[in-house]
Each structure stands twice: as C-alpha cells, then as structure tokens.
Amino acid sequence: MVNPIVVGIIGAGRIGRLHADNLRAMPSYKLKSIAEAMMSDELLAWAESRGLGSVFAAGEDILKDPEIEAVFICTPTDTHASWIERAALAGKHIFCEKPISLSSEETLRALQIAEEAGVLLQVGFNRRMDPSFRKLKQLVESGELGSPHIVKITSRDPQPPGESYVRSSGGMFMDMTIHDFDMARYLMDGEVAEVYTRGANLIDPMFGRCGDVDTAVITLTFESGAICVIDNSRKAVYGYDQRVEVFGTLGSATADNCRPTTVEVSTATSVTRDQPEHFFLERYNRAFMDEIAAFARSVRLQEPLICSGRDGQAAQLIAEAARASYVSGLPVKLSGAGAGLSEMQAL
After folding, report:
1. Distance between CA 13 and CA 133 in Å, rounded?
2. Is residue 9 left, alpha or beta, with left meaning phi > 0 and alpha meaning psi from -120 to 50?
3. S-S: 171 plus which of 48, 182, 212, 240, CB 3.0-4.6 Å?
4. pLDDT score recorded for residue 339
C-alpha cells in the first residue's frame, strides 16, 4: 500500500495500547493520535515512550481531524455503539472491539448508521485470524472433512476477572463465550437455529452475586442440523485452554493449545510438556496483528471484511439467546438467519 492509513484510537486501556503498538509496527498504518477519558501521568508517559504527540481526553478531537481516515474503538463495551455512530457520521472507517454493544437495539441502530454513511465496520473477533483456526476453516471449505456434523470448542480462562469487570462486562456469554459463538459461525459458515445453555457457579460466589456464571456448556444447533458444543470455565489452573475440533463425514481435524515450546520430556516417572500459553495476549498475538492487517487491505484494496458488523450482530444475538436459555432452563430458538436475526423464542 503506497499511502499508509492515518488512524486514531479512542480508548487507551489494555486493548487500546496493544493495538497502538501493533499499528506502529505496521507500514500500512500511521497512528496519529489517541484519546482516553481517564487521563493520567502514566498514560502520558506511555504515549511519549511511543512517540505519540497527540493525546486527547475527548474522542471527538480525533473525529474532527480531517486527516484521520479510520478509528479504532477500544472503549468500554457500553460506549461502543455510540462511538460507532459518531465515527460513521464523521466519515471514518471503523475497527471496533467486541461486542458491538450490550443491547441488540443499540447494535442494529449503529450498524444502520454505519451502512448509510458508507463506511467500513470491522468487529474485533481476532480468533478468526488465528493460523490454526484458519486452517480448520480451510479444511471445511475444501471439503476435505466432508459435511461437518459436530464442532467442539473449549475455551477456559486461567483465572477469573475481578468483580468490577464482571459487573460491567455483560456476563460470561456476552464477554467470553461470544468469541466461541463467532468461531462456530465462522467454521460452519452457517446460522444458528437453536441455543441451549447450562450454567453454574462453581469457582467463586462473586459471579452469582453479579448475576453471572463461571462455568457453562452451550449447545448450538445450526440450520443445517449440525451441532456445536462449547464448554467454558473462568478458571483453568493449568493455563489458557483454547481447543477446537471439527468432525465431518470424511474425517475430523483438531486445533490444539499453543505452548511456549513443543518439547516433550519423557522419563521413568513422567511425560511432561509446557503448559498452554498464559493468556489471550500471548495466545493470540499473531491474530491481533493479522486482523488489523486485514482491515488495512479492506480499506485500501476493497477486500471483504474478515468480520463485519453483521457478523458481530449475529454473535451478539446468540449470546443473548444463551443468557435467555440459562435463565429459563429451556432451549431458545433463533428465528431468521444472518443479518435478519431479530427474534428469540423459548421452546
């Protein structure tokens, strides 16, 4: 790409700073400014260490800059939709972290405004760009596994988040499992017809006080009849457990955990190998880089978005159905498919 894309970041928490470092390392981007409402000396020192001269307390200062072509929205979830709308009306292409919002109505309005404004909107489901999961996708698309019948997704965090985070996150299904809902749709290239959830509080009563769960198994039934089983836990003592299997009529394929090394030590008393990577920053480091590289190609070369706003909407609706199923104890049917998903009905 001859001309780098001039970008600004709204939100300078952990994920905003990760994207800032990745953008600075890529010749297809020029990171011009960053905005963070919670201004601090520590933030200013961090920005100075990165050579960022423009640090604002208000995201509107970024949107007013005519040189900035695209914005990265890395603010708290409950502000995403509002920033999408403002960025779209300012004519900026948008990369937004997941989920788009905590309300399907807010998400729909934000998508409509972005589409009417003619700007690109990519949602940060970075796992689509993980090399192992992309390989599974290619195997499914090539037909090598035949018709996929079962997908199994294991996603377990190494340790629980704090209570303040849990209360503002939207809950396990919207904050954590939503990645797995998107992965299921990505691998199956189809829409979910029914969701059934069983959840429990087995790790910390704090989750129950917050109206959330820390352990869950979710079954997704696709319109094709294929089934996906997802198991989640907020505490896997051995590390960040991320595994996926696709089983089809002609075979199966599995993506295993990533580990610091592939060395396996065998002795008379044991066989050992490294534990999985500690957390998502290590496990999905390359995926974070590759997803923003893909966004640059979409902006400059008109390549299709790897994860559109409508993909984000679909994953969010499945998360809402998973929560409804947990509360009711019944399967929940999703009516419609793709962008048309709009209604849920307990069976």
Report:
1. 27
2. beta
3. 212
4. 38
3-state secondary structure 39-74: CCHHHHHHHHHCCCCEEECCCHHHHCCCCCCEEEEC
What size, in residues, is the chain? 347
Q: In what order do the strands lie in the sheet with 148-156?
A: 251-255, 241-248, 148-156, 227-233, 215-222, 192-200, 332-335, 343-346
Residues 256, 291, 118, 186, Cα dihedral to 10°: -10
Mean pLDDT by 10 residues, the chain (347 residues): 89 94 96 92 90 88 97 96 98 97 96 98 98 98 97 97 94 97 97 98 97 98 98 96 98 96 93 91 93 97 97 98 97 68 53
Contacts of 179 (CB under 8 A, 6+ apart): 98, 125, 127, 155
Q: How far apart are CA 216 and CA 301, in angstroms?
A: 41
Exposure string of 80-113, with b = 16+ CB inside 10 Å and e = fewer, is bbbbbbbbbebebbbbbbbbbbbbbebbbbbbeb
The answer to whether the Cα torsion of 288, 248, 151, 282 is positive or negative is negative
